[in-house]
Amino acid sequence: MKELKRTPVEIFGHDTSTASGDLELAVKQQYCRFIHATCNKPRKSSPQEKVGICSVASTVAKGEALEPVIVCPQRFKVDSLLETIRQKYLKDWSNVTWIPEVNIGVGGSIDYVAVELGSRSEILNFQCVELQAAGTTGTPYPAVIDFKEHGQFLKDKYNYGINWANEFLKTMMQQAYKKGKIVQSWNRKIVFVIQDVGMRYILSATDCSLLTKADTQQPVDFCTFRMKWCENKGWNLVFDQIYSTSVEGVNRMIGGAGEDQYLTEEDFKLNILKKGIQDKLIV
Prior knowledge:
Layout: E1 8-11, E2 14-15, H1 21-29, E3 31-32, E4 37-38, E5 53-58, E6 67-70, H2 79-89, E7 96-103, E8 109-117, E9 123-131, E10 136-138, H3 141-150, E11 160-162, H4 164-185, E12 190-195, H5 196-205, E13 212-213, E14 220-230, E15 234-245, H6 247-254, H7 265-278
Parallel strand pairs: 9-12, 12-14
Antiparallel strand pairs: 1-2, 1-5, 3-4, 5-6, 7-8, 8-9, 10-11, 13-15, 14-15
């Protein structure tokens, strides 16, 4: 693994560890190479300025090493990912078209639907695919400001974290449950594309007792990709593995960790006491 500092790993589609003319131009133009257009994540306080952060360095699941964590779903939009989905799920299809943001009724919308079209544009088959990135607590944007103004980061550690629970349990799992129930009623499958680090968090924090290796009979898949460093090419997304589960399996994950990981009542009382003393509410 390439050694990282607690800074953005990629901005505007480029690795930040090596200065290059392409990176400087992308920063100046606020251009994202993954969507082939201007970055579509504006700053709330200044919409004309784009955030431009694709991935940041962070620890994962109580580990100590810093790893690249994708924080923008546009980072997944690379040919290698689409080709992997094709190989794993659409191998026997021909004339495949990808349609974004398709309404699924009470379940909201699907990020992408791969469609196999017939000769008269009738839908012969389809596959629902969702993209889920991580999100940050605090903000790494001051690092981008430093980079814009000085051409480099001025610190080795910026004040941000990863909101694992919000993105992967509150947001994604709720979607997996609602949309999983719908596609299950059609006897079909929905695929959630996430980074391997997100799955490691899920495995460490939830009840995954009904999660299995790839199973074509289950309605919900988590197709994971990892960030691999390639010298002179930067960070590449490569296929990791597929996990499958039922709607009930998703429900258990939403419920959090298994009972064997619950804090005991006595340990919770100790936490109450420690916090009360710390806040000077108990003397």
